[in-house]
Prior knowledge:
Layout: H1 6-13, H2 15-24, H3 37-47, H4 50-77, H5 83-89, H6 91-96, H7 100-109, H8 114-119, H9 125-135, H10 154-164, H11 166-180, H12 187-210, H13 222-246, H14 258-266, H15 268-288, H16 292-325, H17 331-348, H18 352-375, H19 386-395, H20 399-419
Helix pairs in contact: 1-2, 1-3, 2-3, 7-9, 10-12, 10-15, 11-12, 11-14, 13-17, 13-18, 14-16, 15-16, 16-17, 17-18, 17-20, 18-20
Amino acid sequence: MPAAHPAPADPAEHCGPAKSAAHSEPAPPVGHSTSAAPSTSAAPSLASAPSTFSALPTRAPEIAHAAPARKLSTGRYGPADPVKSLMHRHRELCERAVDPLEIAAGLEAHGVTDRTAARYRHRDVFSLAEELFARVPGTAREPVAVLSAPARDIQTRAAWSLRALLPGAACLATLLTLRLTEGVLGGGARLAIGGGGALLAFAGLAVALRTGPLSTGGRPTGAANLYGCWLLGYALYGQALLHQVLSGGPEGPWDVTPAPLLGLAVAVAPAAWSAHLFSVHAHRKLNGSRALEEFAAGVRPLLFGAVAFFLCAATGLLYLAGLGTGGGAPVGAAGLGVLLLLARLLTVHGYPEPATTGLAAACAVEAAAPALVLAGRLPGLHPLARPVDVLVAAAGAGAVPAVACGAAALGLLTTATVALSRASAHTAA
Length: 429
């Protein structure tokens, strides 16, 4: 009985040889006892059930090769091609792009930096954009000048330059008419001439801002325009209003200070040229840069230079306007001009929200000054008017718009330094 246990194990381990021995040599091999006979009789029964044992040789290779196959798939589509996931994520951007620079700007707008590009095995965003541009077939890859520098055609520049002179020309014509008709026409007629001249100036300003470097390309600017009109109106009547409020008024007609409006109207042309030069040189920097940091470092001095150029031109024009009208132009008018230029630049390059916020902040400060003086007349609220009293006593009524517009312009300059140094701000169609 103990010898019966190993007998069935022999065919299970060597079923192939047992089967062949049953057909060729029926006799048991030498050295086996008669107790091995059951193995001969069991061979046909084992051979008659191939499904149980035939699965063993075919199953082992599947188990052995399952893990390497999964590892190969992960290695091929994961770390081996890291750009593929980015390509699928931004496929629409890559298909619409007409130039690698547009893809680079779009990636930057989505938060992809040069450090992020290093994770995709590229030295910067520009080289990553070039690979995406080459790998994704575009829907319309025709060489259009969407991302090229602004047009240098002489007729085009002459056209928007002449349109930029329209507001200043309307203001000059109105002031000359009022000067020539002084003592000849009555107050109602002169008021009508002044109102008509103001409407012509605003119409010329609208034409100048519709096309050219100061055009927003159809972006909504309703709130910004409203705040701009408030600031220009305060430049005309604000000082006289504040004087009357501080002296116990308001009472009687307000005096008009035409020098700020005249100087700023003529300064529309230098503003257009400042925006044009900044855009042209920024596009040159974008075409020649190979890293986002390099482009940002090169475009910041261009922004400061454009603002400084306009500030010098506006200051000179305001000084001449003050001499021509018999009254000096306040310092706040220069700050107002810089504020309006920065707000327009931000809007043109796709950042209207901070521009509107800066203009609204300046309007709030200018409106708060007479409101605080009036509130200080109430019993127990006299301290509310003290800041305005101290400021006007130290620097005059023109200090209020100077502080309001100067602080807002400084805030917008800080915002523009960050926003306009991005590639995506110069590649919008």
